[in-house]
Predict the 3D structure of the following.
Amino acid sequence: MNRKTTFLVVILMVLSAACSKPYPKKITYLATASVSAYNLQYLNKQNELAKTEVVPQSVQDVWTYEFTAEEGDIVYINGKYGDINSGLKIQVLIDGKVYKQESTVGDTINYIVVSGVVPYE
Amino acid sequence: MKRSFASVAFILGWVYFLNAQSVLINGYVMDALSREPVENAQVIILATGEGTISGADGFFSLSVSHKFPVELSVEHITYEEIVLTVESNKTTDLILYLSPKSTYLDEVTVLGSFENEKPYRTETISAKTITKTSIADIGNLLRREPNVSGVRKGAVGIDPVVRGFKYAQLNVQLDGGTKIEGGCPNRMDPVLAHIDINDLENITVYKGPFALKYGPNMGGVISLTTYTPRFYEKFENHIEAFAGGQTNHTGFKSSFGVNGGNDVVAYYVKGNYKKYGDYEAGNGEVITSSLEQYNIGGKLAVQPAIGHTVTAGFDRSWGRNVDFPALPMDERKDDTYLYNINYFGTNLGNVVNYIRIKAYDAHVEHEMDNKSRPFSDTLVAVSQITANNAGGKFGINMNVLKGRVEAGVDYEQIDKDGVRTKYLILQPNLPKIYEDLWNNASIKNFGLYAEWQRSFTSLDIIIAMRYDHNVANSDTLIRGKENGNVVYENTNTGSAYNNFSFSAGITWHINERNSLMFSFGRGVRSPDMTERFIILLPVSYDPYDYLGNPQLKPEVNYEADLGYSFIQNKSGTLQVSVFYSFVKDYILGELVPPSQVPPQTRGVLGVKKFTNIAYARLAGFELSYATPTRYKWFARFNAAYTFGVNPEAVQYVRENGEVVDERIIDNDPLPEIPPFETNISLGYGFFAKKLVPELDLRVVAAQNKVSEANYEQTTPGFITADFVLSYHYHEFLSIYTGVTNILNTNYYEHLNRRIIGSKGPLYEPGRMFYLNLRFHL
């Protein structure tokens, strides 16, 4: 290779190394601590609001939903239950670490909303 | 036999005669950057010393009696000398491109100049100056020029202010006429933000309303020239590369380009990449300022016939995650597409010097949000805006009335639309609210212009005039609430104006060293998109929601400039300019009672609507001096000051965060006017100026003349010092290394906006070390 070609290759290698994209984040919605049926509404991997009803067998039962997201994506999940003797705990995890969480016991009126934006590094 | 001998003798004699008689070499001398003709270039035959001088259209005609090949030298005081060999007398109509002298450009970088006999102040920044700094933003670079400042809202996107004029009061353009409309209502992406600093070959600032052939000009023109493909006698290829890294605002900028061509086709392809993190101010405070920007562009020039060049260019740029701590949102994504095609023709006879035709399209897709802000915990707002600016220009330069006339037409059309989506992320069902931004707004401007120049023995005269027909409209301006109530509605969105501008200037060459310049002008500009169509957004420096006013009148600037220039080979160059400006129908915000329009942004004090006040006045001066370039050492100095007054300002008296009264303040200073400032540079050229250390001092006075009516805050003065060491190792490699803000001064410019969510100023970066490498093969 002549001098100009060598120079060209080196520059392109440096530039390609510099243009690295951030890794996607693993998002986990997690709902637990309820003894009776509850409803969840969450932003899914298609970025659409999805609904589901969960009927737990015990208070230890855990409902989860996982997908990948990018920095700046909105994460959103809300939950509501109708049994005054029940409760609900909702968490949003990013790459396995708790990003936000909320819980109530015996509150059948208000929604539990856990939401935010996948942080930029 | 005798007859045959006579015939042979006759033929030999004729051949000898043909060889001995002189042959004409014709050609044009052109500026390699601007492609404009270079007048008064000396074209000399090296062997005999015979020569000639190029005319106003760059044309020269040289009689050659010497045997071919002939070596020609082309010299001009402000250009690098070239020497070329003309192989045979069949080579006629040469096109010779001269590159501006770096020393000359370096000098005017600090000095400014009255170049091209312009009787008003201009400043020029060369590519060399750009290369040796760590600066990544064009607006930041411009702030080094006398009486040029900038509004800082983040690390980049600094919006220029020239002699107190800003935003649409300045005509900012690229490559002789390409204009760009940014998307953000808060101007996080002004025109300069869409151009990579490493793509520039030079910047020229024409101060005042005098240069009218560049489009509507009320306060000044900032003309940017990007890299230009160059024609070569034989096919050549070259590689240009640049890499620069720095501490503090840690990051790097880089570029890579390939260019070349022959005498018919020339090309240039170039890409840039830069990425920076946050920076630390002098007091250790970390300022959120990370960013990533990259672009790729190219130009292809074809010269189908001598003196006729067609150039097509494109540029595609990306901005990603650019922080603006002094704005409510950050830039998440900016995609810019620039296309242009240009024709430049000379060699058109004795009357027409040249013809210039240009068409362009600049398309911006801008997305910004508040996702990095604490407030996004309750409401995520995302704005997506599309802005398009398309236009063109036709100009012809002719010899008329013993002078030169450039006349032409230009057209510009701006279209802008967008939507802001608000996600109420703490509410069930994740409600979304959509708000229109810019409401399909459109501004069209059609202009006619003419500029006549003539030189007498000791006088140069220039007279220019321009007519603009400006039409604008948008959909109904409306802002509703979630419950369906309408907060504001305006259906009267159309407007049309006929604007007439003119300027006249004279340069009196008192003698070889001293010149006196005087210019007077009337520059008119129509209101811009924001002033006409913004709906309830806090787009200014003060805490108010702003409303556009489609019925605003154009601003008219009557300005007079007086200049003096002393240029002497041994003593150096001294230039002084003073200006006085009377702006009729100056545009400012006027409070709207909350009962009429309630504010829509949290934390603002009320709503202001753009309106015309009777007039405002601005005045100031620039003073500069530079030692001659003939010495190894150099010293440069400049000082500049501007003062602006609103003769009858209205102050809205606040109590407990609410407006409770208003009062009139006479002769209140205009807001956002930079203070008095001086710059001093000292340096020495070692080893035939291969190694040049340079120390730059900047002394800025406190700004205490602030607008009382607008509760503008004073700014303390400061001193900063920078050092740069330039080493031109070889033709292939130049190294620049330096320290900026050596004293680690904790300071901020008067025009820096305040950080959102705090009352603290947006400090400038503290001490920083950098290293730049420039390669050329």
Summary: Chain A touches chain B at residues 3-4, 7-8, 11-12, 14-15, 18-19, 41, 43, 49, 72, 74, 76, 78, 80, 111, 113, 115-117, 119-120 (CB under 8 Å). The mean pLDDT of chain A is 89.
